[in-house]
Amino acid sequence: MSNIELVIFFQFFIGLFAAVNPLGIMPIFVSLTAHQDLPERNKTAYTASIAVAAILVIFLLAGQLLLDVFSISLDSFRVAGGMLLVSIAFTMMSGKLGEVQQNKQEQSESISREQVGVVPLAMPLLAGPGAISSTIVYSARYPSSIDTIGLIVTICFFSAGIWLLFRLGPSIVKYLGQTGINVITRIMGLILGALGIEFIANGLRTLFPGLS
C-alpha cells in the first residue's frame, strides 16, 4: 500500500471525524443514557458504534450504484455534498451541537425510546448527511478493490474510536465542560468547512474546465 493511499485514508478519517464531531455529540449521549447503569451505557455505546460502521459501509458499497440509478455525476454530487458540509460547518462554528443532524420531531421521539444506540445516536446524529455524503464521494472517487477495503478499514477504526469516546463520555464531558466542547466543535466546524470547499472546488473544476 503506497503512501498516497495512506494519505487518502487518513484524510477520509479526519473528514469523518469532523463531519460527525463525536466530541460535540458526547453530551447528548450522556443525557440520553443518564437513566442507564454502566453496563447498559456501555452496551449503548457498542450498539451505536456498530450501527455507524454498518450504515457507512452500506453507503460506501452502494454509493456509486445510487449515483448511477439517478444519473448523477460524481462531480455534481461532490459539489452538492460540499455545499452540505459547508452548511453543517457554519452551524458547528456557531457552537450548536445536536440540532445540525437532528430535527425537533426526531428529538422528541428519541426521549420515549429505550434503545437509543441506533436511533437517534447512530442515525441521524453520528451517521448523518455530512458523513454519508463524504463516504459516497470517496467511494465513487476511489472505486478500486484495494481502496474500498482500505476505506472499510478506516470506517472500522473510526467506529472503534466512537466506541472508546462514548465509553469515556461522562469523564470527558466532566473534564472538558461545555466551554471546552464548544471550542472543539468550532474547530471541527472549521476543518469540515475547508473539506467542503475542497469538494466544491474539485467538482466545479471538472464540471466547468474554463474555471481552471
From TrEMBL:
It comes from the Bacteria. It holds the Pfam family MarC. It is found in: Cell membrane. InterPro entries: Multi_antbiot-R_MarC. The chain crosses the membrane at residues 6-32, 44-67, 79-97, 118-140, 146-166, 187-208. GO terms for cellular component: plasma membrane. It is a multi-pass membrane protein. Keywords: Cell membrane, Membrane, Transmembrane, Transmembrane helix. NCBIfam families: NAAT family transporter, PRK11111.1. Belongs to the UPF0056 (MarC) family. This is UPF0056 membrane protein.
